[in-house]
From TrEMBL:
It holds the Pfam family TatD_DNase. This is Hydrolase TatD. NCBIfam families: YchF/TatD family DNA exonuclease. Keywords: Hydrolase, Metal-binding. PROSITE patterns: TATD_3. A divalent metal cation 2 binds at H127, H152. GO terms for molecular function: DNA nuclease activity; hydrolase activity, acting on ester bonds; metal ion binding. A divalent metal cation 1 binds at H6, H8, E92, D202. GO terms for cellular component: cytosol. The keyword Hydrolase applies.
Amino acid sequence: MLFDTHCHLHHPRFDADRAEALARAREAGVTRLLLVGTSVEDARAALELAEQHKGVFVAAGVHPEGAARWDGGTRRALLDLCRHPRVRAIGEVGLDYHWDYPRADQERAFRAQIRLAREVGLPLVIHDRDAHADVLRILEEEGAGEVGGILHCFSAGWPEAERGLSLGFALGIGGPVTYPRNDALRAVVRQVPADRLVLETDSPYLAPQARRGQRNEPAFVRFVAEAVAAERGLSFEEVARLTSGNGARILRLDGAP
C-alpha cells in the first residue's frame, strides 16, 4: 500500500529494535522499502538486511561525505553490488554544501557515479543539500536523464523542480512537507505531475511534525502520505496507490521497463 523510497533501517540507531520497526511499518501498510547506502560498506549492510525480507530493496552509492575516498576500487565494489537483483538504484549520490566536504572531490565522485548509473542502467537517488544549481547542472552535463531517478528530500523551488522533471526525475517528498513553515514545499507538491511523486522518510532522520524530535522510522511515511493527500485534494488511498506505483516504475520492479 505504501512505499518508503528512502530510508536507512540498517542504521545503527535501529540496532535495538530493527525487527520491531519493520513490523510497525508493515502494520502501517508499508509494503516496500528502499534502503539507501552512503558508502560501499553501508550498502553491503543494507543488502544483508534486504536479503532477509520481502519487498526490501537497496540503492548503493557513495554520499558526498565520503567523496574524498572515491577511487577505482570503490567504483569496482559498487559495480559488483549492482549485479545483485535487490540493488535497484545508485545512491545516494550528489553534492552537500551545508557541510565543509571538499567540493572538488564531491563533484568528481558525483560525476563518476552518474556515469556508472548510465553504464549499468540503474536510476539515481540524488542527495542535494544547499547545492541546487550545481546538482542540476552536473545532472544535465552528464546525461543523467538517460536513467532518471529520484531527487531525494526535495527542498528547492518550482524552477528547480521543473529542471529535474525535464531530466526524468521524480521528487522525493518526506517529513519536511509536514512542517508548519514549509509552505514552499507544499506549493511544489501541489504542482508536480502525479506520476513524478514518491514518498520517503529518510529515517532515522527528518521525522514528520507529528513525531518531531523522535527517531524517524518507515511507519511514519503515513504522515507524509496524509500531507500530500491534503495538498492535492486526494484520498490517502489514492496517494498511496499512486506513489507506490511511481516508486515501482522508477526502480523497475514488477517487470516495469
